[in-house]
Amino acid sequence: MISKSQYTSYLSKYTSACVPALKKCASSGSNSDCSSAQTTCYNDIEGPLSQVSDFDVYDSREPSNDPYPPSTYSTYLQRSDIQTAIGAKQTYVECPDAVYDKFSTTGDDSRSTLSQLSSVVQSGNVTTLVWAGDADFICNWYGGLAAANAVDYNGQKTFSSAALKPYTVNGQEMGTFKTEGKLSFLRVYGAGHEVPYYQPQVALQVFEQTMKGQAISST
Known about the structure:
This protein has ten helices and four strands; from the N terminus they run H-H-H-H-H-H-E-H-H-E-E-E-H-H. By secondary structure, the chain is α+β, with helices and mostly antiparallel strands. Helix 1 runs antiparallel to helix 2. It is globular and about 50 Å long.
């Protein structure tokens, strides 16, 4: 996707500009500092990287005008019979701007939720899964794995040192995973941002295991 010289340039900008801005955001917690960090890191790295070639940030295998997944689910969820069946309290709206804008003005992209995630896992009451499709750029599995390894709980040392192993569905390898206590991580093969669209069998198995309070496991 990028050349060695581009990699070196982006890494230099990350170290010299993005990291200090992120640290300032973490230290002060102010909207202005976090918004500044969000702008700096996007303008110097994320934005240029997403434009370096014609690809979809939600599925790097596809062009930027990627039609997948199709928007038919939005129409389906707006049907009155479906809303009644699932107990919806209002009409489905796809990514309302008002909600996004509220988060964006706080510099939300630059704020870490690692401490909150750690608290959830530390409670011992919530089965927690961090997962990502391996074709997703915007929420890539490398970052997801690094974040999962950094979760602070009593199983962290064992979890972070464990190697990923094959995750299978009915004997077919569909990804790699590891689990310790209430925390699991899963990389899903051949999936973009919306994992259930690309790999529905994997998503269903993972969903059922997690909702039963179980650590994910191969079948």
